[in-house]
Amino acid sequence: MFGLLASLVWQTGCRSTPAGADLHRFEFKQPHMGTLFTITLYAPDETRARGASDAAFAKIAALDRMMTDYDPESELMLLCQKPAGQPVRVSNELFDVLQKSQRLAELSDGAFDVTVGPVVRLWRRARRTETLPPPEMLAHARAAVGYKKLKLDARNQTVTLTVLDMQLDLGGIGKGYAATKALEVLKGHGLPRALIAASGDIAAGDPPPGRRGWRVGIGNLVGTRSTASQNSTNELRTRWNASLPREDEPPLSKTLLLRNAAASTSGDMEQFVEIDGRRYSHIVDPRTGVGLTERLQVTIIAKSATATDSFATAVSVLGLERGLVLVESQPGLAAFILRKNGGQTETFESRGFKNIPRANAESLAR
Ligand code: ADP
Ligand code: MG
């Protein structure tokens, strides 16, 4: 949330062991979903590496076309244009991501809610105009928000928007979902030693040759300054390009070692608006329709990037205490949370977080 953008920085090593001696490291980047996706993988040669990464990027592009709310022709937007109350049959993947979203909506008591579209649109406008959404427009938008107004029928694979003017928004889960699916594509091409990164979301497969995992740094961005006009994409690119943190970057607060696991950081304040001295995040509380103002940076670690992306958003909405309760109720989920309190940054960990392997622990063991 706070300041620069990407709060996850990954670093890779090039050391090879006999098992991976014939593998080389390749890195490819493409813009999708309003951010830069980076694929790092180990492959025997460039042809294999390019073939697999092209297929993985094609998967991400297809999911982007399906889920975007910027294109009125996307499957998601066509669904939203159907008359209220009409069941609409959707593709396997759209049904899958909506089903996962609804499960988390229930689990988080509506903190994660993909029906937030109407209020998210008002806050997008608020960011452009730097004025708060007019109360009557907010009230109108809120009437179309609420995960219980979205009905899924698994037998017929249909989706029903039960109320007029509903808008679905998959911004809180789409990048993680795409990263998870793209990693599966790489595995399908026989290249499981791969990592996919998209701003705050990372999906890691098998580790680099001779390593126990991919080094993934959680940046401490809570204390850094930022302005609404900052060009976040450039900042993000420079961070992702770096194999080591730059000197002018805030120090990393933790370096994890991930294999067949994912991590997401939410609340990087990449998109926020400051009005009358208050800072409103692009993550909104579905119950109030208002952008979050608490200065939290939430990192979630779990098996899949679909889970980490969406839980990071959910925990941001729930806030520290309730967020930690949710994380600890889920096996295989861990959280690392930074909170800005006045000039100070406090850190909080869920119980499971200490079990995530650390890069420094690995070097000590060697
Ligand atoms: P980022 O996209 O910066 O990684 P998130 O993953 O937290 O951050 O997603 C934020 C996006 O999720 C918002 O831009 C919006 O599209 C959507 N969103 C906002 N509030 C919610 C919410 N309460 N539940 C689900 N999605 C949300
Ligand atoms: Mg998210």
Description:
By secondary structure, the chain is of the alpha+beta class. It has helices at residues 46-67, 75-81, 92-107, 117-129, 135-142, 174-188, 232-241, 305-318, 320-328, 359-365; strands at residues 8-11, 24-32, 35-43, 88-89, 150-153, 158-161, 194-198, 201-204, 214-219, 252-258, 261-266, 272-275, 278-281, 284-285, 290-291, 296-302, 334-341, 344-349. It has ten helices and 18 strands. β5 and β6 (158-161) form a beta hairpin. Residues 1-7, 13-18 and 223-249 have low confidence and may be disordered. It binds adenosine-5'-diphosphate and magnesium ion. The site of magnesium ion has 7 residues, from β11 and α8. Residues 172, 264, 266, 309-310, 312-313 line the site of magnesium ion.
Give the helix/strand layout.
Blueprint: E1 8-11, E2 24-32, E3 35-43, H1 46-67, H2 75-81, E4 88-89, H3 92-107, H4 117-129, H5 135-142, E5 150-153, E6 158-161, H6 174-188, E7 194-198, E8 201-204, E9 214-219, H7 232-241, E10 252-258, E11 261-266, E12 272-275, E13 278-281, E14 284-285, E15 290-291, E16 296-302, H8 305-318, H9 320-328, E17 334-341, E18 344-349, H10 359-365
Antiparallel strand pairs: 1-9, 2-3, 3-7, 4-6, 5-6, 7-8, 8-11, 9-10, 11-16, 12-13, 14-15, 16-17, 17-18
Helix pairs in contact: 1-6, 3-8, 6-8, 8-9
